[in-house]
Amino acid sequence: MSLDRSVRWRGLDPATIEHCHVISTERDTRIRGAIITPTYGLFYRIKLDDTEHVRTVKLERTDGKVLELFSDGAGNWSDDRAEPLSALKGCIDIDIWPTPLTNSLPIWRSQWTIGTPQRFTMAWIDGDEMTVRRDEQIYTQLDATHFRYQSADFERDIEVDADRLVVTYPGLFERVD
Fold this sequence. Notes:
Elements: E1 3-12, E2 15-24, E3 29-36, E4 41-48, E5 54-61, E6 66-71, E7 77-79, E8 93-97, H1 104-109, E9 117-126, E10 131-143, E11 146-151, E12 154-160, E13 166-169, E14 173-175
Parallel strand pairs: 8-9
Antiparallel strand pairs: 1-2, 1-14, 2-3, 3-4, 4-5, 5-6, 6-7, 9-10, 10-11, 11-12, 12-13, 13-14
């Protein structure tokens, strides 16, 4: 994947605004984003290796809270003190609330057949609480520009563009660029 692009989303519930920049080369992918929510600002950085596996993620809030995680790309995680996070063992991708950007990570990394669901074990990061937990998610490609996202009792059909970045995430996000 080769990409050097900025995107903006408007969060619908809660009302947010986000600006994100993705730079992807043969060597790695680097993502930086800033989100303004009703109660805090959040800056995030994500680095993927050349196989689109998450290697580092750092979230910094305007109230001073910081969450930094490191992965070996094979599903082993540690925190900023190099303490292993055994609850995240096997998680390859991350999903950060409140951004639709991270929905692209498993989509970029995987091969797809229309109508065939794929299960992912995610490190789900809650920007409101600055916590991380394991989360099982299923994605199914519906056509060239739509994926069904499922997690527990939540389901949405997400529209993506040619770079597989979210355009609309019904009820939660829409692109404004």
